[in-house]
Design brief:
The complex is a heterodimer of chains A (290) and B (777). Chain A is an alpha+beta fold and 290 residues long. Chain A folds into three domains: 7-53, 2-Layer Sandwich (Uridine Diphospho-n-acetylenolpyruvylglucosamine Reductase, domain 2), CATH 3.30.43.10; 58-172, Uridine Diphospho-n-acetylenolpyruvylglucosamine Reductase, domain 3; 179-287, Enolase-like, domain 1 (2-Layer Sandwich). Chain A has helices spanning 14-24, 37-42, 78-82, 85-90, 93-98, 104-109, 112-118, 125-131, 149-152, 228-234, 241-248, 265-288, and strands at residues 7-9, 28-31, 50-53, 63-66, 69-73, 135-140, 143-148, 153-155, 158-159, 166-172, 179-187, 194-204, 210-218, 225-226. Among the domains of chain B are: 31-133 and 193-285, Alpha-Beta Complex (Aldehyde Oxidoreductase, domain 3); 134-191 and 288-359, Aldehyde Oxidoreductase, domain 4 (2-Layer Sandwich), CATH 3.30.365; 462-616, Aldehyde oxidase/xanthine dehydrogenase, molybdopterin binding domain (Aldehyde Oxidoreductase, domain 4), CATH 3.30.365. Helix content of chain B is 28%, strand content 24%. In chain B, the strands form seven sheets. A seven-stranded mixed beta sheet of chain B has the order 3-5-1-12-9-10-11, sandwiched between helices. Chain B has a five-stranded mixed beta sheet with strand order 7-15-14-13-8. Classes of the chains: A alpha+beta (290), B alpha+beta (777). The complex binds flavin-adenine dinucleotide (FAD). The site of flavin-adenine dinucleotide (FAD) has 29 residues of chain A, from strand 2, helix 2, helix 6, helix 7 and strand 10.
């Protein structure tokens, strides 16, 4: 478990980092918390010649509220999210998701940005990002652009981020009134990643019926997705157990489900339906309590 | 024996350094001029080596040498197998493959370089041209006539066939009242996965012509002998030192090819050579555990009494035999009747070669398989006869508690199987649980209660039955200052015998526990030894130390008697004094030590000095037992199993230190439950390992378990003077079937009678959906 040799660079600013990425191009990799990249390097599945450690760029590490939006720097660690009182009150889905990730070491080192760019099909964050309709802020040689979560995840370990771009921030909207959210997952017994993970943000109308529900699913397919048929079946309906079950049954419609030693595609689809129903149920209860 | 230290919950002497990170492991060793070794390994399960091009590796700066199997031929001996079974085929096992590779990860070439990273990089540059051959992975297919062979020069893939038969099978077959229950059980392959991987530093001094080897091993003395033979060196010029070992679980009860190569390289280059195994290498090329297919036939009377038991064991050897590979499944046969008085038994064990890593001893080593077989069998009888599993067990317990002659040929030392069972039932609230189960079943919920009343064989063992002898040595030396040094031929690596041995000696000599220091694991310090495995260290090694301190006492008593004018037999050793039992006459321990070393006046026939040695030969194995109860809940929608509670009542004979017994049980349970619920090493049909990292191999973590409720009963053994049986493997052995029995019990309303391990949720979900049939595979 020894990686190939590489040059190690430590930029101090975003500009410096972008300069290095431009200079070394395909031969380089950005290093954040290292908890996805370093294992790949040790298995020699990745062998960058240049490692650009952005870990010391303080400007990428913050959680703040501005213009009614919550903004997280790409380097914010899972633990910082889990323990943020701002997020606990304004967007509890994020701390709830962080709690389900890895172990203490992983949470202390791993970053939100790193997880999103790595785009592991079983990672937890993508489900939550889809449910809260997060916006990814990217910086490249030609400036800044924003990418919606649903456009960000392109395929298995592939995102809309260009190779010369850095992910700098993630923006999410705070929880509106009468809204609840929830994240539930089945942990893989070895990796701890999501065999299936479902994140829900659900708003109740004044009438008590469901206004809008957004359901993000990870672990099932090659990339995380919104369970659109489920969302459609929920909209405008009252959240009875039967309705939720009927809607959740479509949580993996049309998905070409992953199959591995631990869970077949069929089982994953079944799990998606069960976990979706439970997460929707929990989110609806929370929404009713607000 | 008085009890000042024995039986006390004394904290471990070894813990402060281990907890504070001050222990020294092989990889901590840095010697001047030390070079590093790395291996190029086979990417195929079975292939002919057409050519090896090491040019690029040799040309890499910092590379000192590249070796292939051809260069080692005649220079380094084969990897040894010590098992002696009738008709056993032992294929030559070179340290580096020659001609053909037989399993994924087999070492093909070795690189020595000035840096560890450099060695690894160069090893990647070695180009081997392979011609893939058909790989043999399925044991049953391997035995079919005309199957591809793992070793082309052998007639077939059968390594050995062993039969064990006793009783009157004609009578059994003719008894129409007997219910015949058949079942196949799969005992999956596991990775021992010790926290510290293997590691070795070999240092040959050309001037002195001596070889010193630091190895993370459980058997320093055996390793020294074997490395001397492999390296064709004078054994008296070899020394093995075992620093701290971060877990072995049997996987380091072995002699590995990599160690042979390290010794060879150091000798060739005249400088120290270090090899530290990577985690991926550890998963691929350190021995695996278990891997058996068991076909059972149970002949049960209507009242639950089992009249006859048959089993065919297919045991995967892997491609080669490591030190004890073929011996492991023979322990399964020996213990297949468990705690039950079954008069008629037939076991056929077939060792099968496959293109996989060798199996060998992994915590329990053959006995977990036996216990799994017989404890599942008891539940199958309960299922078929609609009885309570506890009742079936009680029906089959032997009536005697001593010297129980089993049909398998072994004689259990002491037994009281009812006692821990009763305690466990009470602890778990068994009757209450059954009522809760009934209530929940009515609501469509799954609660399962699983019982296992195991017995195992340990304290290995009588030399007559052990390949290289089963004795152990102990030395006690009272230093001139009165401090006490203890040397043991065992090689504890986490079990805590630095503490237990000190307790034994302090108790014996009446000195302070803090004044006793225990050494082990250096063949130049400890005269001779066998090692630590088979739950033998305290029972066998501790007994040697006990008798060695008896010898010291005898000698000191002679000195003291001369001083006090009493008979030596009247004297007691306590509180730093040697005194008459009424305390009227006494002399300080220290002044007798001075007498012995100054040797001014020696009692008749007594030599100066206080260092005594004893080699203990156990007259029998010991047979610990216990009762475990697992309580599980199953998610009725997803099949996920939640272990709600676990109760373990273990009887390991006399308890010298309850803290250590608890520790062994806790760790053992984690491994046994791990097999039941999560762990499996899986090769695909081409022989690629699908579980080669911890991303895929589900090693349990502390958070996977509820708090374990542990308790003990104490049934002493007469086999050794301490009355101890052994507890290193009991937790693992007892727990696997308890958990599987609990899950199957939960699914009983569905008519499910068996599920193979690991109990992954999908299997259970399929059973609940009703479309998986028996076995849920
Ligand atoms: C033992 C273990 C258990 C884990 N369990 C879980 C789990 O249960 N759930 C889960 O979701 N994850 C889990 N992870 C993954 C963990 O969350 C990782 O930390 C995360 O996926 C990657 O974040 P990082 O900061 O470590 O990224 P790195 O490993 O440093 O980088 C990952 C990738 O993203 C790129 N990158 C990183 N930051 C940026 C950026 N700002 N802009 C552009 N590119 C960037 C890198 O170049 C690299 O390709 C686990 C990891 C380990 C080791």
């Amino acid at each position: 478990m020894i990686s190939e040799s590489f040059e190690y660079h430590v930029p101090k600013t975003i500009e410096e980092a972008l300069g290095m990425i431009g200079e070394f191009g395909d031969e380089s990799k950005v290093l954040a918390g290292g908890h996805s990249l370093l294992p790949m390097m040790k298995l020699r599945l990745a062998s960058p010649k240049h490692l650009i450690d952005i870990g010391r760029i303080g400007a990428l590490r913050y959680i703040r509220e501005s213009e009614g939006q919550l903004e997280l720097g790409a380097l914010t660690t899972h633990f910082e999210i889990e323990s943020s009182s701002l997020l606990k009150s304004k967007c509890p889905l994020l701390p709830e998701t962080a709690r389900e990730i890895g172990d203490v070491q992983v949470c202390n080192r791993g970053t939100l940005g790193g997880s999103l760019v790595h785009a592991d099909p079983a990672a937890d964050w993508p489900a939550a990002m889809l449910a809260v309709e997060a916006e990814m802020v990217a910086r490249g040689p030609h400036g800044e652009r924003k990418i919606r979560a649903r456009d960000f995840f392109v395929d298995l370990m592939a995102t809309a981020l260009q190779s010369d771009e850095l992910l700098t921030a993630i923006r999410v909207s705070p929880l509106p009134a009468r809204t609840g959210d929830a994240y539930l997952k089945l942990h893989h017994p070895a990796s701890g990643f999501a065999v299936v993970g479902v994140a829900v943000r659900l708003t109740l109308a004044e009438s008590g019926s469901i206004g809008e529900a957004r359901v993000g699913v990870t672990g099932v397919g090659a990339k995380p997705y919104r369970a659109e048929e489920t969302e459609r079946l929920l909209a405008g309906k009252s959240p009875t157990a039967k309705r939720l079950e009927e809607a959740a049954a479509h949580a993996a419609d049309g998905v070409d489900a992953n199959s591995d030693l631990y869970a077949s595609g069929d089982y994953r689809k079944h799990l998606a339906a069960v976990y979706a129903r439970r997460a929707i149920q929990r989110a609806a209860e929370r929404a009713a309590g607000r | 024996m008085a009890t000042k230290y024995l039986g006390e919950r004394i904290k471990r002497k070894e813990d402060p350094r281990l907890i504070q990170g001050r222990g020294h492991y092989v990889d901590d060793l840095k010697l001047g001029g030390m070079a590093h070794l790395a291996f190029a390994r086979s990417p195929h399960a079975h292939a002919r080596i057409k050519s090896i091009d090491a040019g690029a590796a040799v040309a890499t700066p910092g590379v000192l040498a590249v070796y292939t199997g051809e260069e080692l031929k005649g220079q380094v001996g084969f990897v040894p197998c010590a098992a002696g079974l009738e008709g056993l085929k032992i294929p030559d096992h070179p340290c580096l493959a020659t001609g053909t590779v037989h399993y994924l990860g087999e070492p093909v070439a070795a690189v020595v370089a000035t840096s560890r990273y450099g060695a690894r990089d160069a090893a990647e540059k070695i180009e081997v041209d392979y011609e893939p051959l058909p790989a043999v992975l399925d044991m049953e297919k391997a035995l079919v006539k005309g199957s591809p062979r793992v070793h082309e020069h052998l007639t077939d893939n059968t390594a050995f066939v062993a039969k064990l038969e006793a009783g009157d099978w004609n009578a059994v077959r003719q008894d129409a009242s007997l219910k015949v229950i058949k079942q196949r059980l799969i005992n999956q392959r596991l990775a021992p996965a010790s926290m510290e991987t293997r590691g070795v530093v070999a240092s040959y001094s050309p001037g002195e012509d001596t070889l010193t080897v630091w190895s993370s091993t459980q058997i320093p003395h055996i390793l020294k002998t074997q490395l001397a033979i492999m390296s064709k060196l004078d054994e008296a010029r070899c020394r093995v030192i075992t620093p701290e070992v971060g877990g072995g679980f049997g996987s380091k009860l072995n002699v590995y090819g990599e160690e042979g190569v390290a010794c060879f390289a150091s000798r060739k280059l005249g400088r120290p050579v270090k090899w530290i195994e990577g985690r991926r290498e550890n998963m691929l090329a350190t021995i695996h555990g278990r891997d058996q297919i068991n076909d059972l036939e149970i002949y049960a009377k209507p009242d639950g009494k089992v009249a006859g038991f048959r089993c065919r064991i297919l045991a995967s050897m892997g491609a080669y035999h490591q030190l004890l590979t073929p011996a492991i499944p023979t322990l399964t046969a020996l213990m297949i009747l468990g705690a039950y008085d079954i008069k008629n038994v037939f076991v056929e064990t077939v060792g099968v070669f496959t293109n996989e890593m060798s199996t060998d001893a992994y915590r329990g080593a053959g006995r977990p398989e036996a216990t799994y077989i017989i404890e599942r069998a008891m539940d199958l009888v309960a299922f078929e006869l609609k009885m309570d599993p506890v009742e079936v067990r009680r029906k089959n317990f032997p009536s005697s508690g001593k010297d129980i002659s089993m049909a398998t040929g072994v004689v259990y030392d002491t037994a009281n199987y009812e006692k821990p069972l009763k305690k466990a039932l009470r602890l778990a609230g068994y009757n209450r649980l059954r009522k809760e189960q009934e209530r929940l079943r009515k609501k469509g919920k799954y609660l399962g209660i699983g019982v296992s009343t195991y017995v195992e064989i340990c304290a290995m063992g009588p030399s007559s039955r052990m390949p290289g002898g089963g004795w152990e040595s102990g030395t006690v030396r009272v230093e001139p200052t009165g401090k006490v040094t203890v040397l043991s031929g065992t090689s504890p690596h986490g079990q805590g015998e630095e503490t237990t041995f000190a307790q034994i000696v302090a108790e014996q000599l009446g000195v302070s526990f803090d004044d006793v220091t225990v050494y082990h694991g250096d063949t130049s310090v400890v005269p001779m030894g066998i090692g630590t495995f088979g739950s033998r260290t305290t029972a066998v090694g501790g007994s040697a130390i006990y008798y060695a301190s008896e010898r010291i006492k005898k000698k000191m008593a002679k000195f003291a008697a001369a001083r006090l004018g009493v008979k030596p037999g009247e004297l007691l050793f306590r509180d730093g004094k040697i005194e008459t039992s009424d305390g009227a006459k006494s002399v300080p321990f220290g002044s007798i030590v001075v007498d012995a070393y100054s040797a001014k006046t020696l009692p008749a026939g007594v030599e100066p000095g206080l260092f005594e040695q004893f080699v203990f030969e156990p007259p029998n194995y010991t047979y610990p037992f216990g009762a475990h109860i697992a309580v599980v809940e199953i998610d009725e929608e997803t099949g996920e199993v939640r272990l709600r509670d676990y109760f373990a009542v273990d009887d390991c004979g006399r308890i010298l230190n309850p803290l250590l017994v608890d520790g062994q049980i806790h760790g053992g349970l984690a491994q046994g439950i791990g097999q039941a619920l999560w762990e499996e090493h899986v090769y695909d049909e081409s022989g690629q390992l699908l579980t080669g990292t911890f991303m895929d191999y589900a090693l349990p973590k502390a958070g996977c378990f509820p708090w374990f409720h542990t308790a003990n009963t104490e049934t002493r053994t007469p086999v050794n003077p301490l009355g101890v049986k052994g507890v290193g493997e009991a937790g693992t052995i007892g727990s696997t079937p308890a958990v599987v029995n609990a899950v199957v019990d939960a699914l009983r309303p569905l008519g499910v009678r068996h599920v193979d391990m690991p109990l992954k949720p999908e299997k259970i979900w399929k059973l609940m959906k009703g479309n998986a049939g028996d076995g849920g595979r």
